[in-house]
Amino acid sequence: MDYDRIADLPLTIDGLESTRLERETSSEFTRVTTAISLTGPDGDGTATGRGEDVTYETDAHDRLAEAGLPDLTGEYTVDSFADRLDEIDLFPGSPPDREEFRNYRRWGLESAALDLALRQAETDLASVLERSDEPVRFVASTRLGEPPTVERLERLRERVPELEFKLDPTPAWDATLVENVVGTVGTDAVRILDLKGRYEGTEVDVPADPELYELVLDAFPSAVVEDPALTDETRPLFEDSAVRSRVSWDAPIHGLEDVEALPWEPDWLNVKPSRFGSLESLFETLGHCTDRGIRCYGGGQFELGVGRDQIQTLASLYYPDSPNDVAPRAYNDPGVESELPASPLEPSATRVGFR
User: What pLDDT was estimated at residue 201?
Assistant: First the structure.
């Protein structure tokens, strides 16, 4: 497993710092995250490893800003640092709204620790894993508003004519809107349809709608279909093997056990590292996908800082040609900038650390 290649990297932490980040987004909500910095000695003086806690709970970030991070100074390996986190409550005194947020904060710390350990070893993740950095294809993930229109698609395509998309169908979509989408970007440019049927109890949950499912399945026959809700009414739409082969899973996936518990062995998975929490769980799942021929693509969490760079790095190493939802941060801004990076993203010329 690739985790074994990083587990024994030495890690020395002398200091910790957290910084609250905030930004408006294209999905019409204010995103708050926490940038995490771990510092320690390297051959030239002091190195800094960075990560990002992407918990979707503003109060949790505010409390962390007030209380600070726990004392994690000391000498470790990457693996023994993970063991230390097993012993700590990262939300002391006030548990998060959703248990998976514990994974999000843990990922912020583990990714920062890996970045620092690699820098202290004067190397980078690609070299340690013996993988090559490849250009990363990406899609622009965007909603179409309420009521939905193709206006944002038109503006994005004006800036980047060959841009591909991940779209979130909602109950407000109808045949006319779908025709307008096809007329604006075509069918093949819609690479992913995120049905958000597995986000029960959250603000972005979309109820199962067999008519909506059938509409978009037919209109975009080559698109990956993410997180359908399987009910008595929708399940028949997915009995055909050709349709099942297009289905991907995102929200239910926090580790290998979740992959093995899916209704059928998947052909696709959306990999969001923060959901896994630990580096070990992430690399275990990636190894399983490689062994089983499961295609992966990277997923984002509206990262505001280094977390975005890190999911792009993983995409570069593991699934560069997939429809990765890891577009540069400018694509998440409420407005459409006059200049936007085009896909694919070229690897960084600076080869050190985990970013």
Answer: 61
CATH topology of domain 131-332: TIM Barrel (3.20.20)
Q: Are 178 and 216 in contact (CB under 8 A)?
A: yes
pLDDT digits (tens, 9 = 90+) for 212-253: 999 999 999 999 999 999 999 999 999 999 999 999 999 999
CA gap 120, 201 in Å, rounded? 42
Q: In angstroms, rounded to a whole number, what is the distance separating the alpha carbons of residues 139 and 254?
A: 23
Asked whether the beta carbons of 145 and 152 are under 8 A apart, the reply is yes
Helix axes 58-67, 100-120, angle to 10 degrees: 50
Q: Is the pLDDT of residue 203 over 70?
A: no
Q: Which fold has domain 3-128?
A: Enolase-like; domain 1 (3.30.390)
Three-state DSSP class for residue 285: helix
Position 28 scores a pLDDT of 81
Pairing of strands 190-194, 45-53: unpaired
